[in-house]
Amino acid sequence: MKIQTIHTVYFSGTGTTKKVVSALAQTMAQALSVPVEEHCFNLPKAREQELAFGPADLVIAGVPVYAGRVPNLLLPYIKEKVKGDHTPAVAVVMYGNRNYDDGLMELRNVLTDNGFMPFAAGAFVGEHSFSTILGAGRPDGDDMALVDQLAKGALEKLAGEELGQIPVAVNGCDPIRPYYTPRDRHGEPIKDFLKAKPVTDPDKCVRCGLCARICPMGSIDPQDVSQVTGKCIKCCACVKGCPKGAKYFDHEGYLYHQHELEDQYAGRRAPSEIFL
Known about the structure:
6-stranded mixed β-sheet; two-stranded parallel sheet; 10 strands; 276 residues; Alpha-Beta Plaits; single chain; Rossmann fold; alpha/beta; 7 helices
């Protein structure tokens, strides 16, 4: 199969998804002597754009896993505006050291439904958006070595005569299960978890406006960055992107869930996995 261009199509609030899909694309592009085009849909304006690809394109699609699935507020964009036409694709998800559950399966299925041929896939561990100790330092050297292995395996498959119409087998459940529900110590769903929003330390904030510019939902008021006027997807782009450390969460349920995840999963090394 003759590929003319490799396209990265990704969301990456804190940079880990971008690191993986970019490395994968560059390795494959160098081997195939083709250019790479980047399509980052972090910001609302980017998600207004329709993307269409053909048989001579190779798409590397990457998203983080939120609550075990493709983030619910990003899913409509991928379903409705990212289209292929017998376009070979590699599906990539990032997860924060707990589990990617059905995230990779869901991304693969959406790509298949939209005219792509997902022939390779990977689930990689990155630092959790909620935490600095869950998956700290990942993807690391071992993870990136696996990215390289995925690239080489995908290149071998592309060199074959036919990719076939059956998408690559990946872990997960089909039909896709509901989103993971954060629960309190009594096993009840955490009240108002979805309404938790970052707050601003006025003593640290220098009003540079960076948080408003990088918020994927466009929810931070650029005139008063202490105001989060829209939905928050807990990507923590503003928290981890603030050069002064002025953004943080103080919502009791959010913090309980964060600490519970850290208590349960910070002490282990969850695996990155590839599928060919």
